[in-house]
Design goal:
Layout: H1 2-41, E1 43-48, H2 55-58, E2 64-70, H3 73-76, H4 85-94, E3 97-103, H5 109-120, E4 125-129, H6 132-174, H7 176-184, H8 189-192, H9 194-221, H10 223-230, H11 240-271
Antiparallel strand pairs: 1-3, 1-4, 2-3
Length: 272
């Protein structure tokens, strides 16, 4: 019964860590998907004089993905009924050319300033509208959310790792007599601690499988996906074999490293 409680405590602790890791993976995917959505929606408007070569804009910065000329006809046509034909033709001739500049990724505020400065220096460019105020607020909120998630994940993993170390120390104390007898017969330390590593490996596999099953059920349920779709993004909550292997690897590495720390600490205590 005591052995079962030790297993259960370790599985719950590892489950908490692996669950937190998968949450962070999903959040990171969501942020990347949202950044892509923002990148697709974000653009700059550049106003230039007639006869401008748009290739100058394309070459202005590697961040620029495409430059599309905007037609002012739908705006000018509204004035057609209010002015004479001659004035209407003069108006069309005097209008500057408008270009929509799209980027290959969602830029940082500093990159926006640098890009705007580079475009402004091009001859015949009269104005650049970069919508920097709205962009900066969106980017800072995105960055804040990502930072909070990272801090929470690190804190959760650190606290739970301490709990796992405590559970392993309890297990080692319970089996101290058996390990001492094996030491008297000359058994190496890795053999004396084999059961501890087996406990760590088995519980790591069980916890990672439980987390995988939890996220797979959440994926098939569809409620979370529907919530994300309302934001205009599509995110994989659980990416099948890739996520499973990733979680198993993280759980195994963590549990084996913590078990090794316990073994080394116990060895140092014996020789102290």
């Amino acid at each position: 019964m005591r052995s079962f409680k030790n297993h259960l405590s370790l599985i719950i602790a590892l489950f908490s860590i692996i669950f937190t890791v998968q949450i962070f993976i999903v959040v990171d995917r969501s942020i990347n998907a949202y950044e892509k959505k923002l990148k697709d929606e974000y653009s700059m408007i550049v106003i230039v004089k007639k006869g401008f070569d748009k290739q100058l804009l394309v070459n202005a910065n590697p961040l620029i993905a495409s430059v599309v000329e905007l037609s002012p006809d739908h705006i000018v046509d509204k004035l057609k009924s209010e002015i004479s034909n001659q004035n209407f033709k003069l108006l069309k001739l005097s209008l500057p050319t408008f270009y929509k500049v799209r980027l290959n990724r969602f830029p940082r505020p500093k990159e926006i300033k640098k890009l705007t400065s580079a475009i402004t220096k091009i001859t015949n460019v009269t104005k650049v509208e970069d919508f920097s105020s709205n962009h900066d607020v969106t980017y800072k909120l995105l960055l804040l959310f990502k930072t909070i998630t990272e801090i929470f994940s690190i804190a959760m993993i650190a606290v739970t790792s301490l709990l796992i170390l405590k559970e392993m120390k309890i297990w080692q104390f319970q089996h101290n007599e058996r390990m001492s007898i094996m030491a008297l017969f000359g058994a190496p330390i890795w053999l004396r601690s084999a059961v501890l590593f087996r406990l760590a490996i088995v519980d790591a596999l069980i916890s990672s499988l439980l987390v995988s099953a939890t996220f797979f059920l959440a994926k098939t349920n569809g409620k979370v996906a529907n919530e994300l779709s309302q934001l205009g993004i599509s995110v994989e909550l659980f990416n099948g074999v890739d996520d499973l292997l990733k979680l198993v690897l993280i759980a195994l590495c963590l549990s084996v490293v913590l078990a090794t720390m316990i073994v080394i600490a116990n060895r140092e205590d014996r020789y102290a």
